[in-house]
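Appendix B: a complete holo record

For completeness, this appendix reproduces one full record from the ligand-bound portion of the collection. The bound molecule is 8-OXO-2'-deoxyguanosine-5'-triphosphate. The inputs are the chain sequence and the ligand SMILES; the output is the full three-dimensional arrangement of the complex, encoded as structure tokens. No fields have been trimmed.
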Amino acid sequence: MKVVRVVAAVIRREDQVFATARGYGEFCGQWEFPGGKIEESETPQQALIREIKEELNVDIAVGECIDTIEYDYATFHLSMDCFWATIINGQLELKEAQAAKWLSKVDLDSVTWLPADILLIDKIKKVL
Ligand SMILES: Nc1nc2c([nH]c(=O)n2[C@H]2C[C@H](O)[C@@H](COP(=O)(O)OP(=O)(O)OP(=O)(O)O)O2)c(=O)[nH]1
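The structure of the chain with 8-OXO-2'-deoxyguanosine-5'-triphosphate bound, as generated:
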């Protein structure tokens, strides 16, 4: 099966994390952490800084890796490196997402996550 390597940022502000709803495609309307595919020659951290600038127009500092999520979708295998991140410059703008929310621990179950993200949410809950 095709392997898609993705990187995602769990942007943190005090006890909240920033989630976005997909604005297009197969998973339109479902919630995720901003990020995208790692291009050849990029490190995961470089890919994450680039994607967040493209999608949200802010600069981030990339922190520790939370987990690498491995998940089989119907047509591909997802391998997703998930990092803590903080905004270091700029105001959030939604360039691609249809909606966004800052979620605290008790709000994490209130949105419909992409299937692969369920595995990550438990880890985030332990830290928030
Ligand atoms: N960014 C992101 N992608 C996720 C998450 N969970 C999850 O299953 N995915 C999947 C959905 C997509 O199949 C893939 C990410 O691809 P993408 O479409 O965002 O990447 P991209 O912007 O580089 O690609 P493209 O649309 O330009 O082709 O990973 C998540 O939390 N964040």
